[in-house]
Amino acid sequence: MTKKPRNYRQEYDEYQGQPKQLKARAKRNNARAKETKLGNVHKGDGLDVDHKNGVAAGNSSSNLRVQPKSENRSYPRGPRGQDTEIKHGVPRKKK
Fold first, then answer.
1. pLDDT value at position 86?
2. CA 72/CA 60 separation, integer angstroms
3. Distance between CA atoms of 7 and 14, rounded to whole angstroms?
4. Which among 36, 33, 77 is positioned nearest to 55, based on CA atoms?
5. 77 phi and psi, to 5 degrees?
6. Is 2 among the domain residues?
7. What confidence tens digit (pLDDT) does each residue in 6-55 have?
8. Which of 23, 27, 48, 49 suits a disulfide with 72, CB 3.0-4.6 Å?
9. What is the count of structural domains for the chain?
């Protein structure tokens, strides 16, 4: 089965270019710039600026922390307060 090539233009038009997504990306970029100005992160350092409460809208200093990309992107995000574990690549609720 041949894979259909990815249409980046369509992705941008349908998702990434929407006003809501443009604003969300701007807030994430603002958080990164804030930490860069403080000297906590640098270009190419392998670090992410993480929002402790999971909402990119809260860019207050108390809501931001610097983490390695491997930690910040290591698990799928579920609804707030939901405990999940991963089995065979699928997030499931903990019992």
1. 53
2. 18
3. 11
4. 77
5. -90, 130
6. no
7. 999 999 999 999 999 999 899 999 999 999 999 999 999 999 998 888 77
8. 48
9. 1
Instruction: Specify if 1 maps to a domain.
Output: no
Smallest CA-to-CA distance from 51 within 64, 38, 41 is with 64
Domain that holds residue 70: 8-93
Distance separating alpha carbons of residues 28 and 22, to the nearest angstrom: 10
- Exposure string over 13-37, b if 16+ CB within 10 A, otherwise e: eeeeeeeeeeeeeebbeebbebbee
Average of per-residue pLDDT across 61-74 = 88
State the Rg of the chain over Cα: 16
pTM over 0.70: no
User: Does residue 69 lie in a domain region?
Assistant: yes
